[in-house]
Design brief:
CATH superfamily of the largest domain: Queuine tRNA-ribosyltransferase-like
Subunit structure: Homodimer. Within each dimer, one monomer is responsible for RNA recognition and catalysis, while the other monomer binds to the replacement base PreQ1.
Pfam families: TGT (PF01702)
Strand order of the largest sheet: 4-5-6-10-11-12-13-14
CATH class of the largest domain: Alpha Beta
Structural class: alpha/beta
Largest sheet: 8 strands, parallel, barrel
Catalytic activity: 7-aminomethyl-7-carbaguanine + guanosine(34) in tRNA = 7-aminomethyl-7-carbaguanosine(34) in tRNA + guanine
Helix content: 40-55%
Enzyme class: transferase
Number of helices: 15
Strand content: 15-25%
CATH architecture of the largest domain: Alpha-Beta Barrel
Family: Belongs to the queuine tRNA-ribosyltransferase family.
Radius of gyration: 20 Å
């Protein structure tokens, strides 16, 4: 159940009650594709840095180690020793982005594994079965994610297929949740809005899928190459057509600036690989913008990554030391940067929630964006 606590303009402060605990929104979900955050980050670390939701990938866990193995081991929560909510994405985006040879048919998609080339079929029912085996808190519907440069007539056909697939996902999820041996019989299903950068297709699709009364609604197919202006234009158009009594999730987004702008347009859930990916390359987020710790100017800098930050890296280590670790290719350097970045994102969401509660979100957004553009020392 989603509880809307406060609105400040379009920005929403809410609470999603799940079988694995309450999610305070807006929320950033920390991406652990294969049931682990890249950068040697443990689930104990995730608790320490304020992670509310961990996100894992259906496709990747299906090909390795196998969802049936995870099920035999008690489900994903037990497997990775995490007792808070987990969202699993459906595998749709990976099927369309990673798979080389693929055939899209009404029943689903035939493709080859990116690991060993073996043939795989995945459709709505298979995606739901895999996610049920994983036992995640929130399962995502199986959709087609067309290219952002696809022609309009193709996107219209693709979106119509995604709608038909969503109906099949809902039916299969209800069946799986009713089985006596299901790991998580309270698994929630989020549907996905598609339509590229065409407002009319997006709005029509949102109006169709809101009739299905799902647990939440995602906006997919953005942050895949279109401009930020196009992304914000689509959000302005489509968010008002999604149910306001359900959480709204912008998939794969994004930078701190993207998040601040999307919250202002009524989005509740976010995920992105940026904090962990950038951290592994020595790029760290601060309120004064992004820093590259490989830069020579940090060689003798004994300050923490960000003064006043409470993350494990900033509490104990200097920029100079972390730079040394990165230059020496010591894994600890990468790990500390990832921990800092995830803490930064999780803490930013806390500040966003507080600003909405206080009715000062517009001022907070303006101040925070200006600070990040300052590129302080």
């Amino acid at each position: 159940m989603y509880e809307l606590l406060k609105k400040d303009g379009e920005a929403r402060r809410g609470r999603l009650h799940t079988v694995h605990g309450v999610i305070e929104t807006p929320v950033f979900m920390n991406v652990g594709t294969v049931a682990a955050i890249k950068g040697a980050v443990s689930t104990d670390d995730l608790r320490q840095i304020g992670t509310q939701v961990e996100l894992s990938n259906t496709y990747h866990l299906h090909v390795r180690p196998g969802d049936k193995i995870v099920r035999q081991l008690g489900g994903l929560h037990k497997f990775m020793s995490w007792d808070r909510p987990i969202l699993t994405d459906s595998g749709g985006f990976q099927v369309f982005s990673l798979a080389g040879l693929r055939k899209i048919k009404e029943e689903g998609v035939y493709f080859q594994s990116h690991i060993d080339g073996h043939k795989i079929f995945m459709g709505p029912e298979e995606s739901m079965q895999i996610q049920s085996n994983l036992g995640s808190t929130i399962a995502m519907a199986f959709d087609e994610c067309p290219s952002s440069v696809a022609k309009k007539d193709y996107i219209e056909q693709s979106v119509a297929r995604t709608t038909r697939w969503l109906a099949r996902c809902k039916e299969e999820m209800e069946r799986l949740n009713s089985l006596s041996d299901t790991i998580n019989p309270h698994q929630l299903l989020f549907g996905i809005n598609q339509g590229g950068i065409y407002e009319d297709i997006r709005i029509r699709h949102a109006d169709e899928i809101r009739q299905m009364d799902l647990s939440g609604y995602a906006i997919g197919g953005l942050a895949v190459g279109e401009s930020h202006e196009d992304m914000y234009r689509i959000l302005d158009a489509v968010v008002p057509h999604l149910p306001q009594d359900k959480p709204i999730y912008l998939m794969g987004v994004g930078t701190p600036a993207n998040i601040l702008e999307a919250v202002d347009r009524g989005v509740d859930f976010f995920d992105c690989v940026y904090p962990s990916r950038n951290g592994r390359h020595g790029h760290v987020y601060t309120k004064q913008g992004k820093r590259n710790l490989f830069n020579a100017k940090y060689e003798l800098d004994d300050r923490p990554i960000e003064e006043g930050c409470g993350c494990p890296a900033c509490r104990s280590y200097s920029r100079a030391y972390i730079r040394h670790l990165l230059k020496a290719k010591e894994m600890l350097g990468m790990r500390l940067c990832v921990l800092h970045n995830l803490y930064f994102y999780n803490h930013l969401m806390e500040e966003i929630r507080e600003a909405i509660e206080q009715g000062t979100y517009k001022e907070f957004k303006k101040r925070t964006l200006e600070g990040m553009l300052s590129q302080g020392k």
